[in-house]
Amino acid sequence: MLAGLVRTIRSRLLYKMLISYSILTLVPLVVVSAAFYVRSDQLLEKKETETVQQDLNATASKIDARLHEVRKLLSELGRQEAIRSLLLMDAREGTNSDGEDHRRQEAAAAELMQSELEQARNNVGDFVDNLYLINKAGDIYATDSGKRLQYVSAFRLLPFEFPNVPQWAFFTDYRRMACDLKLYAGGAAMTSETEIGMLVLTLDPAKASQLYENYEPGTFYIANADNLIVSSSDLSDIGSLLGSGSLENRLVVRQKSQTSDFQYVRIATAGANALVKKQTLFALAVTLAAWAAVFITTYQILKRITHPIRRLYRLMRQAELAEYRLFPNIRGQDEIAMLCRGYNQLVTRTEQLIETNYKNELRVREAELKAIRMYINPHFLYNILEYISVISQSPDKAKYVPDVVRKLSGIFRYSITPGGTFVPLATELQYVESFLQIHQYRFGERLQYSIVLPAMFRQAAVPRFMLQPLVENSILHGIDRLPEGGKIEIEVQEADYHLEIVIRNPSSEEEAAPDGDSPRASEKRARRGLGSGMDNVNDRIRHHFGSDYGVKLTRDGGFVTVRATIPIQIWQEESTG
Prior knowledge:
GO terms for molecular function: protein histidine kinase activity. The protein contains 13 helices and 16 strands.
């Protein structure tokens, strides 16, 4: 189907020009629209990036302020004597204190830290989760009754550069952000021997996300330097790597925290916003409408150009079939109109020449046919009269002269009777039989004949006196030269949808010689008139029916066969050839 469509387009100038002009129109419109969209997208993306960056800076400053307050609070707790005394007491007593003393210490520490926690929540925010105090032996004093700390050892391994300066952990503890402060003996260097314990403050992950609640879920994260998410409005994202999901076609803006090793990540939709998309769709609709208008207009204009050309082509194809028609209603003075007028002049001149040549051809053919018939009639009459002279000299055959004259009269009347050039085949064979009967009076038993005419061919049209010269050749060059005589066979048949009349007769050795005889033998046969009658018949058939038809002579095994081939046509009384 596609191949047929391509062939149709390639065969029609209208379609090819229409597609070419449409492409030439559509491509610039598409390029302009695409350039507008891309440029607008770039400008809006740049503007949106700037806007997102400014917004992120403001949010980062807000969160940094809160984180700084947490670090400040933890630093103040680390300097309280009650906290440090509790840790120093644990260090001195070790495992020697009884259970009662230890419980009193836990209760005192819990009461102290709970008080500090309440104060921190009031001063900093309710996102502060719990406080944990861990002595060097690993005992935990916490505001959390469950003492939930997931990575105690990891807190001990956090690096600290300055004493009494809290450090935010780069990992989460039960999805909570945690700030750690290592405590050392007063005035001592920061070594593992002088370490007396540490303070850990955790943030509630759900309440911590309220610091950036103005953002849509999945558009803001707090991550460490390795892109590990430590805070998100979706708690299931905490602990996963940022960017493990698809961030294609997303705008990612990062801002480094000023108070920690965290980074704030803002994710926004990249590219044109809804307004630009609407404008782009509008531009696309305008482009398609403009293209459709150009397509229709181009089609109408090209149709006025190609329609006369196509019509002229059809007229020329008809002229190939000898159907000459003029191009009607020529309007305008352009090149197409000039071409159509030139075609009309050519057709008019061609018709005039055809008519003149046709009339001249008719005159020539009529003159040739008359000349042939004028030759045949006297020649035939001369031969018959000579036969009458011969048989009248024989006393036994002289009695046949009246019948011969009667048959001759009928043949002669048939040859000069006015009428059409064509006659029914049955009529032609009737007079051929009369001709053979005349010669039977002369040759007697030496001449035999047979005529086979199927009923279906009785009304076939043949040129008048077409067969008589062929039969006369069979007698003159066959029977007459054989002392024992022979039989002439005439058979009508169909061969390859043509009418074939076959005349077969025996021939003498001289006549049966190969075609490659010497020129002298050929001259001898020509002087005797061999083939003159057949040549005349062949010329007449070709005049009437064309060069595909005619007479053919073959010799085989002492017999000569003449085949006259003509088209099968039914004779009509008004037929004139």
